[in-house]
Write a structure and sequence with these properties.
Helix content: 55-70%
Number of helices: 3
Strand content: under 5%
Structural class: mainly alpha
Radius of gyration: 24 Å
Number of strands: 2
Oligomer: single chain
Length: 107
């Protein structure tokens, strides 16, 4: 019903159903939390908290704790970036939000 005195439009009603967007975002957040937890475990827990215990183990002549503190967290982060991009491409395809050109190739 339009209020003719004030010229306002009728109530538009509830917003459209965006359940797929909420589900997409929940899956994205879950993936980020898992991957950042792995990175935290490798870089902080293994590289700082348990460095003394891990230094008793040697790999290629270097203490394992030192490796985690120096190279391990960097290599893990690079692998996690790769895993994130691959999983997000798959998730984008699943929800139909992938960016592609006219031929169907990724942009």
């Amino acid at each position: 019903m339009v209020d003719t005195e004030r010229g306002s439009s009728p109530d538009p009603g509830p917003p459209p159903h965006n359940g797929w967007r909420q589900e997409y975002w929940k899956k994205n957040l879950r993936l980020m939390i898992v991957l950042l937890s792995i990175w935290f475990l490798v870089s902080f827990v293994c590289g700082i908290l348990f460095i003394e215990q891990l230094n008793t183990i040697e790999v290629f002549g270097f203490p394992l704790g030192l490796w985690f503190a120096q190279q391990g967290s960097i290599y893990t982060f690079i692998v996690l970036i790769l895993v994130y991009t691959l999983r997000m491409d798959r998730l984008d395809d699943e929800y139909g939000v992938a960016e592609r050109d006219e031929e169907g190739n990724r942009l």
